[in-house]
Amino acid sequence: MSQKIVGMLSSYRGLSDRADWLWKQTPHPFGLWRNIQMLAKADKPDFLLLYQFDFFTSSKPQSLPWWKRWRTQKKKPTQPDFSSLMRGVSKERIIYLLREPPLEEVIAKNKANYQAASQYCGYVSGPDNFAPNPDYMPAIWYVDNSFRELNEMGSPEKTRSCSWITSGIDRTANHRKRLDFLKLLRENEIDFDLYGRGLPDWTNGCGSVDNKWSAMAPYYYNLAIENYADNEWYASEKLWDALLSWCLPLYYGGAAADKLLPPGSFLRLPSLDEKGMTYIKDVTATLDAWHEAKDAIAEARQIILHKLNLLAWLSDFVGKFS
Asked: Would the keyword Plastid turn up in this protein's UniProt record (predicted)?
C-alpha cells in the first residue's frame, strides 16, 4: 500500500518553507513513517496538518511574532476565508493541532483559533480543556541527531553535572517567574551551565546552541522547566530533548508527564523558589539519582521515539481512514 501524503501549514516563522519538516523524526528518507509520508509543501496532499496556525490577520506586519500580532488585534479581528489554503483536502482529513500552552495572556486567542479551526478541520485539538478535543501534544524534539542514532545509541559520555537551556523571554507572568527562579539560583551560586537566546547579562549564560544535544548530552542532569504547569495536558520538548540526550530531567511541569512516561524517568522539581533551589542542589551533589534512573530513561526514550512521536500520531490518524 502506498503512503498517504500529509501536508502542513503553520504560523511559526521558519516552518513555511521547510521541505524536510519532521524528516529527522523517522529512520526512513523523505519523511516516511509506516503508512504516511510527511511532505509539508505538497500541493495536493491526502491529509493536511494545521500546526499552530493562526487564523487571524492583523494590520501590523506579519513579520512580528504571533503574540505581538495578537495584542494589536481589534476586539473583533478580521478572519478571511482560508478555503484556498486547504489545498483541496476535505474537512474530515484536515487536522488542527495547537501546541502552545494556555497561558492567561493567550487564552482568548486560543479559543478564537479553535472556533475558526472548526470551520475547516475535522479534528481540532490542543493541550487544554478549551479545545474541542483536549489531548497531549504529540512529541517533536529539537535534538538534531538522526532517528537511527537516537534509537540505537547508548548513553554518551557524561562529563558535567547539570545544564539548563532557556531564554530571556519575559512577556508573560510565567516567563517572569522562571527568570526570577534563575536569578535565585545564580544569587545562591547553584552549579549548572546555562544556555539560551536573549539571556540578560546577569545570568552569565554560555550562549545559544544550534543543536540542543551539544548542551545536554555531556550532562547527567537537565533543568526542564515548562512555561506552564497547571493542567493535565501540557508537556513540551523541554522534557523530550532532555531524555533523548540521556539526561535525568529535574522537571517542573504538569501532570501530563506522569501519564506519558515511566516512573523514575524524571524527577519532580517541587517549586520555583527556595525549596526548588535546595532540591536541585541536593540531587546534583551526587550522580546517584542518574544511575538509579538510567534504565527508566532508556525506556522513556523508546516511548518518545516510537509512541509519542508526532509522525506516529499522524500515522494512527490516517490509519482510521483505510
From this structure: no
